[in-house]
Amino acid sequence: MKRPATVLAGAAVVGVIAISSASTAPRAPATPKATPRLAGPPPTIVQYGYVRSLVRAGSRYRLRFDPALFLSGETANRAAVEDGAIPPGDIVPNDYYVRNETKKQLTYAVLPGARVTVVTNSGASGLRSTRVSVSELAAIVKGRNPKNRRLYGNLGYWARVAGDRVVALDQQYQP
Description:
Blueprint: H1 2-24, E1 45-57, E2 60-72, H2 73-82, E3 96-99, E4 106-121, E5 127-132, H3 134-141, E6 157-162, E7 165-171
Parallel strand pairs: 4-7
Antiparallel strand pairs: 1-2, 1-6, 2-3, 2-4, 4-5, 6-7
């Protein structure tokens, strides 16, 4: 009867050793699965900048976009000092600073159904984000206001870009 107990005790020790060595020894590589895509742009990026033109081109619109950096906090303060916009030791007003080093523009396609918002001032309820169509934004960029909205200035936009196509444009309020 002692013999089976010894075998079980030996098996338990071997099991502990196997577990112990498995946790510290390097593992052999697993069977490779689908290789992740390593090249190309991310599925969607967001850029801040200025809409310089938006014109109909066939079944879509062509956007000319002037990218800029919308900075806040200490990053904004340091950039503004470096650019000579504020003296050292000062802070940027309203905790943001827009750095637009060049006027170089990017061209993107915009589908007619893309989501677009602009900042409007509705009077009684104040400033708000208002959804508009791409065609209405194209008119606004050209200086027209087809729906007589109370627009709030010439502000920058956040462009959500998938590849070379803008899927959303949201105007950024700036005090």
